[in-house]
Amino acid sequence: MTTVMVVEDEEALALLLKYNLEKEGYEVIIESRGNKVLGQVEKYLPSVILLDWMLPELSGVEICKLIRSKPDIKNIPIIMLTAKGQEEDKIKGLSAGADDYVTKPFSVPELMARVKTNLRRAPVINPVAELVFEDIRMDLVAKKVFRGDNYVHLGPTEFRLLKLLMETPGKVFSREVLLKTVWGDNIYVESRTVDVHIRRLRKSLNEFGPDYIRTVRATGYSIDNHLVDDGDE
Ligand code: CA
User: Fold this and answer.
1) pLDDT for the residue 201
2) Range 199-214 average pLDDT
3) Which of 83, 113, 179, 183 has a CA 20 to 30 Å removed from the CA of 24?
4) Cα(56) to centroid of ligand 1, in Å?
């Protein structure tokens, strides 16, 4: 089923959109809090996002920039919804990375048509369907991880960390590179946060097999099958 995310803090409008989108056969996820949007997008991977400009905590423009900075979700089409009809705002929205721009009040049929157009434009997000290393298998479409026959539950950050490591087994990734790739440029996170998430990743994975994540002292992490632990994890 095609999922559309509606980011809108006006409840009546959000419900109107949900009603009409569901009538078209889409699954709809509503989010009203600006600072929750990124996490929700990563969790549900919607096919298109309707994004209100004026939101509490984070503006639509800021959210748009954040989404565009994340490798896993940056290609999801974004339609900005706004009460601002100014030409300069439109330019600002589009330069922040929005694909389309609809001014409130809009006609519902017109918005539904825009959703369809942007869905057609949506690229395939995961050309690689699966990553395998030893007994670890990542299903990138279903976003699931298995070790042998066991399902390994991972949080979204741990999933992205593992994906990066598994894309190039044996390669040592520095904390800085992991931060930049997994968390993005625009978010301030301390480098020891990487260690916290690596620890969680290990805990989940190692329940079903040996530890293939290698800590390289003063450098970073890699995944490989040399069962040597250089670090102090
Ligand atoms: Ca609003």
Assistant:
1) 97
2) 95
3) 83
4) 8
- Name which of 193, 189, 190, 194 is nearest 178 in CA terms: 194
Q: Please state the rounded mean pLDDT for residues 103-128.
A: 80
DSSP string, 130-158: EEEETTEEEETTTTEEEETTEEE---HHH
User: If you measure from the C-alpha of residue 55 to the centroid of ligand 1, how many angstroms do you get, rounded to a whole number?
Assistant: 5
Would you say residue 229 lies in a domain? Answer: no
**C-alpha of residue 84 to centroid of ligand 1, in Å:** 11
Q: How far is the CA of 53 from the centre of ligand 1 (A)?
A: 6
Are residues 141 and 97 part of one domain?
no
User: Ligand 1 centroid to 23 CA: how many Å?
Assistant: 23
Amino acid 126: pLDDT? 45
CB of 66 within 8 A of CB of 98?
no
Among 65, 86, 121, residue at a domain's last position: 121
Contact yes or no for 5/41 (Cβ under 8 A): yes
Decide if pLDDT at 46 tops 90.
yes
Ligand 1 geometric centre to CA of 79 (Å): 14
Q: Determine the structural domain holding residue 138 and report its residue range.
A: 130-223
